[in-house]
Amino acid sequence: MSERALSPGLEALRLAATLAIAGLLSGLAIVGTYRLTLPRIQANQAEALRRAVFEVLPGSERMERLVWRDGQLAAADAAGASADSIFAGYGADGALVGYAVPAAGAGFQDTIKLLYGLDPAGARVIGLAILESRETPGLGDKIFKDSDFVAEFRDLATEPEIALVKGHGEAPHEVDAITGATISSAAVVRILNAGNRIWRPRLPAPEQAPAPGAAQAPAIAVPRDVERGGPVPAVPAEGGR
């Protein structure tokens, strides 16, 4: 009688123990897989960023990372990391082509991460690359699939602030909104303006720009297989509604 009364409890305990062990093993497998693949994921992200730098700074052949330190732009340490960093691009003759600025902000669906180029004076945007986007397929994803929209950021004045317009903008600081994706278009413009408010005041005068080779780490040359002036070979994250 006693054994029969305890049997359901023992059975439940056995089931709970089985589920706990299965959960533990699954968790260990997930953690192990993550640790094994993390270096490759980070390497792919770094490569996509490196390629994007050369795309948003047309004519650049070398790049160096610069950090904002002690109130000025300084060469980045070889292994140092900093959220407050940008990339300087240099031509074959060593002349500064411009700065590649990482920026991010809320889109319609999720965070949009991008990189854009500024000329040495910070007066014009000279390139745009979307690094990560989960905007709605067929609509919001046109911020990187619509070649006409992307092309508007190849010679765009930064003063006054970049403005999004419906229709056809005539002013040098105006960007045409994408039909059906106004929110995503506005998000890109908003992210650039926010980045400009932070970084443009920090840029040195063109004649005082850091020279190539100033960083402790060697400058990185442009990958041979990057299609100059073409699409950025960085694949945005999949997703959407």
Question: Would you identify the regions where 5 or more consecutive residues have pLDDT less than 50?
Answer: 222-241
Strand pairing plus helix content: what structural class?
A: alpha+beta
The structural domain count equals 1
Helix content: 25-40%
Report the principal-axis shape. Answer: extended
Number of strands: 10
Overview of this structure, please?
- With 241 residues, the protein is α+β, with helices and mostly antiparallel strands.
- It has one domain.
- Helices cover 34% and strands 23% of the residues.
- The protein has four helices and ten strands; from the N terminus they run αββββββααβββαβ.
- The strands form two sheets. Strands 1, 2, 3, 4, 5, 6, 7 and 10 form an eight-stranded antiparallel β-sheet that branches. Strands 8-9 form a two-stranded parallel sheet.
- The radius of gyration is 24 Å and the shape is extended.
- The protein starts with a helix and ends in a 20-residue tail after the last strand.
